[in-house]
């Protein structure tokens, strides 16, 4: 009897072996991951400097800390499933996955986690090097750093569930490109990747509170940097848990309906 | 002249090809639209908090975004797809067919593939430049227009030479498809004036990956912030860079052994 744990272990080994074959691709992907936060970091540092040292409660050093933490959290949480699922449905490569006796989501979870475990070994030193260049200032508390760990775990689960559900749109649409682009545009501004949410106008901030994006990037980042009160942290955990429950429920419903529409083209 | 005739020929083939896939127009339009939206939202949020960014006023920064789209569009319509096809040809050995043709192989490899829908970015870029000029509110004299065109031509030439050097590397490293992805993410840093970056990154974006020459310098020319020394420097580099890229290309071609050989 093979349990889920064995499945995850096996997937971990295969992913590791596969990724180590494509070392150059890893480096290229890393450059993209690093450059985008560095661009926003530099821009906001310049804004802070031109406003006499601080803007919206952020000094230049705090912007550095914010965007470097965002880089790490974004790396830990990001998924590529929205692009891959379209390919699976269009090319019919979903079919063999359906034949396996476990839900296909497990394979993706395992693959995602093992990829992150591998790349975090590179991302953390890179973040360290960048902090030498950008000199972040952090004033956090021990409880906030401790609370960051479960917040990050919930953030990974939440973003994965949301984006896996979004990817299922491929069952109904042949080209999901436009939908994905819209999603990533919304995520860029509402999750706190392009700008700390505190600097957005009030109506947009309200929108960010109501949508899930903020809870899988900005919330863990602000928590880690000690920018949240204990009450704010509790509210954040509640929002994460609530959205996670909604996303998993949606995932099950949408998957059930979508898989019935699947025509297994090419299989 | 051969160059222009060849380019025109491949533009026509490209048009005929892409007219079969009219849906791609919609996909490309959506892509350009979201690219534009993200650029403008970024500008909007930044300028809600400050009047100037390293000395650039909002309307002037719009010129940078315009040049970003314009030069990006130009390279994505013809240069990038052609060089991508060239690298694939090296990998498969089918470059033989290009090398045996009676025209210069470098020219052929640089214009062979035209993706016209990417031209939407050129239109978007020109539109942004027009809006920027109207907002800046000064009339652009002949001298400034000439400086802009010169800087734009120089920047495009420098970027072309850079991409040619990258692509030529595929003679030695066969699988290099992703190398343009690196360029793309570096290029995106050019949506902001390179003055916002710390010196080490500014140096990288000027001399290692010539994004500064491609975007910031032409935009500076248009809004009248360009010193004649920088313009002369850009033009000098635009003369030297293609020459060096050409030398490198020739070395690479000599290194190519073909598929069947």
Automatic annotation (TrEMBL), chain A:
Superkingdom, according to UniProt?
Bacteria
Where are its TM segments located? 20-43, 63-83, 113-134, 140-162, 182-208, 228-251
Q: Which InterPro entries match?
A: ABC-2_transporter-like
Q: Name one Pfam family in it.
A: ABC2_membrane_6
Q: Which UniProt keywords apply?
A: Membrane, Transmembrane, Transmembrane helix
Q: Does the keyword Membrane apply?
A: yes
Keyword match Nucleotide-binding: no
Protein name (record): Efflux ABC transporter, permease protein
From TrEMBL, chain B:
- InterPro entries xref list: ABC-2_transporter-like
Which Pfam families does this chain map to? ABC2_membrane_6
The keyword Cell cycle is assigned to this record: no
Q: Which UniProt keywords apply?
A: Membrane, Transmembrane, Transmembrane helix
Transmembrane region positions?
25-47, 59-79, 146-174, 194-217, 229-249
Q: Which PANTHER family does the record associate with it?
A: SLR0610 PROTEIN, SLR0610 PROTEIN-RELATED
Protein known as: Efflux ABC transporter, permease protein
């Amino acid at each position: 009897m093979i349990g889920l744990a064995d499945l995850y272990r096996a997937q971990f080994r295969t992913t590791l072996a596969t990724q180590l074959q494509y070392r150059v691709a890893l480096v290229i992907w890393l450059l993209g991951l690093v450059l985008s936060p560095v661009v926003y970091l530099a821009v906001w540092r310049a804004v802070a400097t031109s406003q006499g040292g601080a803007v919206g409660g952020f000094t230049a050093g705090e912007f550095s800390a914010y965007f470097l933490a965002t880089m790490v959290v974004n790396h830990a949480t990001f998924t590529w499933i929205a692009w891959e699922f379209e390919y699976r449905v269009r090319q019919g490569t979903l079919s063999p996955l359906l034949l396996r006796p476990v839900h296909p989501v497990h394979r993706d979870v395992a693959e995602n986690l093992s990829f992150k475990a591998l790349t975090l070994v590179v991302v953390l030193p890179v973040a360290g090097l960048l902090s030498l260049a950008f000199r972040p200032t952090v004033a956090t508390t021990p409880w906030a750093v401790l609370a960051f760990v479960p917040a990050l775990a919930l953030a990974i689960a939440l973003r994965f569930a949301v984006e896996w559900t979004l990817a299922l749109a491929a069952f109904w649409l042949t080209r999901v490109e436009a939908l994905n682009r819209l999603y990533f545009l919304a995520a860029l501004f509402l999750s706190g990747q392009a700008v700390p949410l505190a600097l957005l106008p009030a109506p947009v901030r309200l929108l960010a509170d109501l949508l899930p994006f903020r809870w899988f990037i900005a919330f863990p980042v602000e928590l880690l940097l000690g920018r949240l009160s204990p009450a704010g942290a509790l509210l954040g955990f509640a929002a994460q848990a609530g959205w996670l429950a909604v996303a998993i429920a949606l995932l099950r419903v949408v998957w059930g309906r979508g898989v019935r529409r699947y025509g297994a083209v090419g299989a | 002249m051969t160059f222009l005739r060849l380019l025109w020929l491949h533009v026509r083939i490209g048009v005929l090809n892409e007219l079969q896939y009219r849906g791609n127009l919609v996909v490309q339009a959506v892509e350009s639209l979201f690219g534009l939206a993200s650029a403008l939202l970024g500008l909007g949020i930044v300028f809600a908090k400050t009047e100037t960014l390293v000395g650039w006023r909002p309307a002037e920064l719009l010129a940078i975004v315009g040049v970003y789209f314009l030069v990006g569009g130009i390279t994505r319509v013809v240069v990038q797809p052609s060089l991508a096809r060239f690298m694939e040809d090296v990998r498969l050995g089918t470059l033989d067919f290009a090398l045996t043709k009676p025209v210069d192989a470098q020219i052929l490899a640089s214009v062979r593939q035209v993706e016209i829908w990417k031209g939407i970015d050129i239109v978007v870029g020109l539109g942004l430049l027009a809006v920027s000029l109207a907002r800046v509110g000064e009339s652009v004299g002949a001298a400034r227009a000439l400086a802009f065109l010169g800087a734009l031509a120089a920047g495009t030439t420098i970027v072309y030479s850079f991409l040619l050097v990258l692509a030529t590397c595929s003679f030695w490293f066969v699988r290099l498809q992703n190398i343009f992805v690196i360029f793309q993410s570096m290029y995106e840093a050019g949506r902001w004036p390179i003055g916002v970056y710390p010196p080490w990154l500014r140096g990288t974006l000027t001399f290692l990956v010539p994004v500064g020459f491609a975007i910031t310098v032409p935009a500076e020319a248009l809004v009248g912030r360009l010193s004649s020394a920088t313009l002369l420097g850009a033009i000098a580099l635009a003369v030297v860079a293609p020459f060096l890229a050409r030398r490198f290309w020739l070395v690479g071609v000599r290194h190519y052994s073909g598929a069947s050989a």
